Amino acid sequence: MKRAATLFCFFLFIYLVDFILVSPCPETSTGSCIGDTMENLVGVNIVNSEPCSAWVTEESISSGTSSRTYSWEYKSHSWQLTLPLDDELYESYKARTRNRDYDLFASDPYDDWLIKEIADSLISLSKACGLEESEIPGFCVSFVQSLNYTSDLQSSGYEQYPRFPYETLYEGGGDCEDTAILSVALLQEIGCDVVLLELPEHMALGVKCNPEQKGRSFEYESHNYYYYLETTGTDWHIGEIPEEYEGQPVRVVPVSRRPKINLDFKAQCKYSRTEGIVDVSVTAINVGSEKAENITFYVALQAKDQLSFWDEIESSPVVIEPEGVYNYTAKGLKIPAGEEFRIYVQAFGENFVSEDVTSDWARI
After folding, report:
1. Which InterPro entries does the UniProt entry name for this protein (predicted)?
2. Residue 340 domain boundaries
3. pTM (predicted TM-score)
4. Mean pLDDT of 142-165
5. Runs of H (alpha helix) within the chain
6. Cα(320)–Cα(48) distance, rounded to whole angstroms?
7. CA–CA separation, 328 vs 267, rounded Å?
8. Cα Rg of the chain (Å, integer)
């Protein structure tokens, strides 16, 4: 993943230009808001044009690399963002497990460089073009709102298939959780206090605002109010909630860097008339966005009362980086013949909630 990201960074160029295209966006007047502060960007201009539909276009750059140009409307102006995207890097994201919490897609560290480039460019352009500080979050989200809506079933064949921000950008859109995840990543990068809002069949963005903000909000951890912001479809503003979601229960999901361990194991057993000997091979994957510190594996043969153990082994502590995989084998666990037991595996450490898995009950 890191090698592919480094390769992609070499090709990365980001430019923001106003929408200078033929019909249906006729040009009415042209001006420039490029100043000395914009010299680090390539071809940043603004054109005052008639409103037009948002869309995503694709163009091949070289073998394995193509650009996506995202076009959208905000504040009566048209905007473009063009990114080169790497096929190999996209495939590496697709190969990663979906078995992780939604917030971990948003806080994934491996696309930080891309999110920062996009956020920095949008901020620089918005300031140079005279947008108020309070308008910058809405401007950033307007880019995400313009992306194509595609259901998970239609695009992936699965009922639920959350995407990393890179995948959403590569595919030119996604469904509600994909655009909410991308929006959270962008707004956190520009310093906003944001959360995911999870509804029974929907997901949106929550933005912490001043008390005078109007609209629908949700309290989290005593007097922290996050205002609803829809990320699917255009022209939604902070505090506006679609009518079909009014009155539905909402779970506030904070987004921060944290480790998360997925555990799995396989066991082999040898037995005699008097006892069984069990070897347990444990696989741990850190699907979180932060390294797991001093993680220790505890492997035991649990007795039927679930309070005592026939035998147990504990590993030495290790560190697992995000997306890192660690294999540990506990050998020679003993169980008396004829006794019922199950395999119990636990991972615990300094900076994450412990995880445990068990087998079915068995008898030798």
Report:
1. Transglutaminase-like_Cys_pept
2. 261-363
3. 0.83
4. 89
5. 2-11, 87-94, 102-106, 112-128, 136-145, 152-156, 165-171, 176-189
6. 51
7. 12
8. 25
